[in-house]
Structures are given as C-alpha cells and as structure tokens.
C-alpha cells in the first residue's frame, strides 16, 4: 500500500523549515514515502522546495490577523477557494497523513483533512499558539508542541511536548565541535528572518561605527532580505568592512551557524530551535508585531537561561548591538559558558520524536484501511 504524507504550511522560513526537517526525516526512514507540501505562490516555499527536491501544491490563502478593511475582506474571500482547492487535492492524493506546520495554507488544508477523515498531526512552534492553531488542535489527532508552556492550549490527551523540528545538519554533537581558534576572526552572523528585518539591518549598519577598531579582527555575515540588500552592502563598503559577507538570503545557513561566534537575529521559534541545537549565543530582537507577542515570550526563555541577550525592537540601536559584540569578544570564558547554556536548551531529538508520531498515525491509517477492505470482501462474499 502506498504511503503518502502531505505537509501544509509555509509563508516564512519559520514555518517551512520545520516541515522540511520532518520531510527529510521521513524520507530517511523510508524512501518510498511520498511527500507533498501545500503552500502559497507568494510564500518562501515556492523558491526553497524545488531546491530541496519536494513537490509543492499551491492554494489561495492569506492571513487574517492584523489585516484591515479591504485586505481582510480579500483574505476572507480566499478562504472558501483555498478550502475547495484543498478538498479537491486531498480527494485525488488520498494521503495517509496530513501535517500542519503553520502558515497561511495550514488552516484550509487541515480543515479539509478533518472533513475527509484523514489523520492529522499539528505542530505548534511557539510558546503561545495563535487562534487558528488552537482551533485546529481540537480537530487534530495529535498535537506536537515545541514548548511545554503551550500544551495548556490544546486537549490534554492529544498533546506531546517534542521541541521544535530542526534539520539534521544543525544537530552536531557538542564533542564534535572544534574549539574556537583565538587567532581566527570573531564571526558574527546577522539574520532578520527569510525576508530580512529593516530595524536590525539599520541598527547593524549603525553598529559598524562603534566597531571601527575591530575591522581586522571581526568577520560579519549578514542576511539582509531583498529590500535592504543594496543599501546595507553599500554601507559596509563605505565604512571599510569590505570583507563582510552581505547577501539577501543565505542558502547554507546551517554552515554559517556552525562558524558563528555570535548570532544576531529575531526570535521566532524555529530560529531559537536552530540556535540552541547548535549551542550558539545570540542577541535576540523579537519581531514586535508577532501574534500575541510570542517572539518576545520565546526570547525570554533563552534570556532566563543566560544563553542570549534580549533587546526589544523599539530599543535596538547600533550602540547596543556593538556592546553585545564587544562583550562576547572580550569575555571568551563567559561566551563558552553561555554556549553550554544554549546547547542544554537544544531539543535535537525533536524531529525524531515527531517522525515517530507520524509513523504511528500512518500505521493506524494503514491498519484501518486494511480492516475496511477485509470487511468489504467479507460482505461481498455473503452475496
């Protein structure tokens, strides 16, 4: 019997990359498992998934939270279209399992799976789930959560605390990490999410003035997003940081994490899972408009464990970023201790746990279908 899994979600890397981590784990377990992603044309999935070798089905969908007037009306109009597209796709695909990992496409697809009685696994990445996932959690067969704090929002019998899904390339055992060579440049990785973050980009450009004396001892890798790329690259060159690696998007981000001495970034759940899986110290600037302020709540977990500095977006300046960089450079023993704190928070087994839940749900589906076929044959033999 064929084994098919549909993974719904995307829009941003924070939703897409956990789905890719799960897809790779399932394919690693059994190459015969057929995996299809469902997302939107405007999401990052349309660019990333072809490179990863996974099929993508796109539907019409967009977010409702925070939208006003005509944009909210347009989002509501897309919803029935997205549900119709999802139903038609699932009827033709007949998957054994649907996995919702968040993002615009997750809602219509998961709802359609429930209508068709297809087993559903929901994965919640954040410490405070949004209203859509809280509602979908009542329909799902299982809910895997990244933070124990979010378990209370879902039916008790369905929830398993697994941690966030992290791609295998991030999960390097601590003993295999080469110690930092004092003679090498101190490497700072700056990320603003898959689309960049203007406030972080501008603050980092300002920080270069405070780091002028460190030009020869520091190496900066900066993912800017498309909009700010030209301006930020020009600023690095103008301020004399010509060896900085400035790009709109970093494909080999796991490799850059491993090389980094310090990471400056947003505090989405997936980013924090990757940081702690690698055991990196970070400067976290939460996205201020995240639903239910979940990014700040995520970040405070790492701050409380002394694994990160937290700077609110409204407060971020070049001076504060430079101060965190200087502190990390000047206190290597403290940096190493904080790296250990970060590594202890890492849930490197999360993807394996979620994979096992998927396999269990798929086996239950297979057994149910076989039993149904057997009962059908028995009934036919009676006539």
In short:
With 383 residues, the chain is an alpha/beta fold. The chain has helices at 13-29, 45-52, 69-93, 106-115, 131-139, 198-210, 229-238, 253-259, 269-278, 294-304, 318-330, 332-345, 350-381, and strands spanning 4-8, 34-39, 55-58, 97-100, 120-124, 142-145, 159-161, 186-190, 218-223, 245-247, 262-265, 282-284, 308-310.
Question: How would you describe what is shown here?
Answer:
- It is a single chain.
- With 383 residues, this protein is α/β, with parallel strands linked by helices.
- It has two domains: 4-166 and 349-381, 3-Layer(aba) Sandwich (Rossmann fold), CATH 3.40.50.2000; 170-345, 3-Layer(aba) Sandwich (Rossmann fold).
- Helices cover 47% and strands 14% of the residues.
- The protein is built from 13 helices and 13 strands.
- It has helices at 13-29, 45-52, 69-93, 106-115, 131-139, 198-210, 229-238, 253-259, 269-278, 294-304, 318-330, 332-345, 350-381, and strands spanning 4-8, 34-39, 55-58, 97-100, 120-124, 142-145, 159-161, 186-190, 218-223, 245-247, 262-265, 282-284, 308-310.
- The strands form two sheets. It has a seven-stranded parallel sheet, with helices on both faces. It has a six-stranded parallel sheet with strand order 10-9-8-11-12-13, sandwiched between helices.
- Helix 4 (106-115) links the parallel strand 4 and strand 5.
- The longest helix has 32 residues, at 350-381.
- The protein starts with a strand and ends with a helix.
- The relative contact order is 0.12.
- The mean pLDDT is 87.
What are the key terms here?
seven-stranded parallel sheet; Rossmann fold; 47% helix; 383 residues; 13 strands; elongated; 2 domains; six-stranded parallel sheet; alpha/beta; single chain; 13 helices
